[in-house]
Amino acid sequence: MSPLPPAEAIAAQVRSALAEDIGPGDLTAQLIPPGTLSRVQVISREEAVLCGCSWFDQVFRQLDPDIRIRWEKQDGEAIGPGEVLCRLGGETRSLLSGERTALNFLQTLSGTATLARRYSEAVAGTGARVLDTRKTVPGLRLAQKYAVRCGGGHNHRVGLYDAILIKENHIAAAGSVAAAVIAARGSAPEVDIEVEVEDLDQLREALAAGAVHLLLDNFPPEQLREAVRVNAGAARLEASGGVTLERVRRIAETGVDDISVGALTKDVRAVDLSMRFLPS
Fold first, then answer.
1. What is the DSSP string of 130-171?
2. Is the CB of residue 136 less than 8 Å from the CB of residue 265?
3. pLDDT band at residue 1 using 50, 70 and 90 as cut-offs
4. Which helix (H) or strand (E) holds 120?
5. Which residue in 135, 204, 225, 249 is the catalytic one?
6. DSSP string, 123-139
7. Which candidate in 217, 226, 253, 272 is catalytic?
8. Catalytic residue at 100?
9. Beta pairing class for 236-240 and 78-79
10. Phi/psi of residue 277, each to 5°?
């Protein structure tokens, strides 16, 4: 299983989500007499890839450490309609108060993992990797990047602090591709430096400047093939822009090394999951 984000990061995300949903108190849950106990189960309504169990657990851990949770499935596993994902037991008020926040995490992260799995399966056998981007839901970056890995995808840089991506505006401000690459090496020689290029002339300029990681922005497949030929293995090539599930394999078959897909974390449809109370 892919390594989880730090425990303190998960706890902070859950704390913020609970504060947003419950605020000073769950008014509706107070209709239930204190001390009432219930058993519930979470079921899937569709085929998907499960992700977010630790966030789900953390919701109830913060609300009521006495809630018992038993998972039947784990992060990264395929799930189908009608399958029981987990069973919970404990005070009814706590189960009701945590239901929506816990499901929000589980449904959203499962949606990301499911889409990542579909893209990864679409390029299987080509040698190309599917990467995520920084187009994540605010506050959920580490969680969504974990979900991408659970789905079989790979992570691009986490943020602006762990790698350099020289884009069009950086090149314009620096004066040229070569000037931008030199400045990047001088400021952060220890990190990965990637250069975005918009045509074959810029690709040649970047290679001449010694770039070893290139992002090919909105290149059509024919131009991607030519870029692979011109590059001749000198740099790692990443295709980006306009990537869809229908087009991704054709892009992968051009010979690029990576394909970055903003839709993995940006256009997420939550998986249909449901929490149901069981008869006493």
1. EE--S---TT-HHHHHHHHHHTT-B---SSTTS-EEE-HHHH
2. yes
3. low
4. helix 92-122
5. 135
6. TTTS-PEEE--S---TT
7. 217
8. yes
9. unpaired
10. -75, 140
Calculate Rg over the CA atoms of the chain: 23
- The active-site residue out of 57, 75, 196, 205 is 196
- Per the structure block, which two tokens stand in for 236? 């790692």
Whether the CA torsion 125, 131, 136, 140 is positive or negative: it is positive
Are 267 and 119 spatial neighbours (Cβ–Cβ below 8 Å)?
no
The DSSP letter of residue 66 is T
Q: What is the mean pLDDT of residues 215-237?
A: 97
Amino acid at 26: D
Asked whether residue 161 carries a pLDDT value surpassing 80, the answer given is: yes
- Enter the pTM of the model: 0.94
pLDDT band at 133 (very low <50, low <70, confident <90, very high): very high
Measured CA to CA, the distance from residue 18 to residue 61 in angstroms comes to 12
Q: CB 186: neighbour CB atoms within 10 A?
A: 8
Active-site annotation holder among 15, 68, 70, 100: 100
Region 251-255 average pLDDT: 98
Tokens of 161: 């602090």
Residue 253: in which H helix or E strand, if any?
none
* Separation of alpha carbons 153 and 230, rounded Å: 27
Q: Which of 87, 167, 204, 250 is catalytic?
A: 167
Quick check: 280 pLDDT over 80? Answer: no
pLDDT of res. 240: 97
- Please confirm, yes or no, whether 196 is among the known catalytic residues: yes
Average pLDDT, the chain: 96
- The answer to whether residue 99 is catalytic is no
Contact yes or no for 228/256 (Cβ under 8 A): yes
Q: Give the closest residue to 63 by CA, choosing from 20, 29, 97.
A: 97
60-74 confidence digits (pLDDT tens)? 999 999 999 999 999
